[in-house]
Design a protein that fits this description.
Layout lengths: L4 E6 L8 E9 L5 E5 L6 E5 L5 E3 L2 E2 L4 E3 L7 E5 L4 E7 L3 H7 L7 H13 L3 H9 L10 H14 L4 H5 L6 H12 L3 H19 L5 H7 L5 H12 L3 H13 L1
Antiparallel strand pairs: 1-2, 2-9, 3-8, 4-7, 4-9, 5-6, 5-8
Length: 251
Amino acid sequence: MHQDLTLEIYQPAQAQPFIQALWIASVHTAHEKQIWLPSDGAQGILFANQVDNIRFEQQSFSNNYVIQPPSTQSHCITASNGAVIAGIRFTLGSLEYLRSINHPLLDGQTLTTISSSLSDQFHLNHFKNLVLSHFKNSVIASRDLEQIHVLHKVLCNNKPLSESINHMQVSVRQLERYFKQHCKITAKLLERIIRVRLAQSKIKRANDVSLVDIALQCGFSDQAHMSREFKHICQLSPIQYRKLISRSQQC
């Protein structure tokens, strides 16, 4: 926790395998605060208590909630003192899958009701109850969504896409169709995003390891390759990210 930002996160077992986490961020600063949401290829829904004082990617909230597109780059939320933002972070492909089966959580009236209820009580426990009330009945993931999640897990173990696909129970063409339908990104782009996230994790954990070594450990051809991908997906360089992490650890 930073002095100017409070972040609460809850990972709901009840909503697995569809929701990664529910979170609430509260801003306590006299100046505008930038909150960076990392790229993971997935989608989310944001709710805000002060729509006039909060911008998502420099765009104001048109409603009290925003459905995020697939996260292929880090996104920035700009908020003022007193702003509170709540988020539902879905697992890869799950938002579109739930929408395709007409799950009640993705109904526009449901999201409006959640937003209205949060305006009276913007707390994590209340947010959890509002969201998880729509998962009282079990929801079964389809085979295609399961295969997307299997590939995601294998890629997170630092396996190249070409090798990972060989272990799948579906053809490459089927997998591409699953990604197009549910994820709105390609498996190749997901591999690039995960590789950068692995590099972020290593930079964060090992300040004494050179960026050259981290690049090779994460499957980049060299440090320059990692820097290009890092800048594109994270919107800052590995060196800038290492300095940012160092400053935050000193706070």
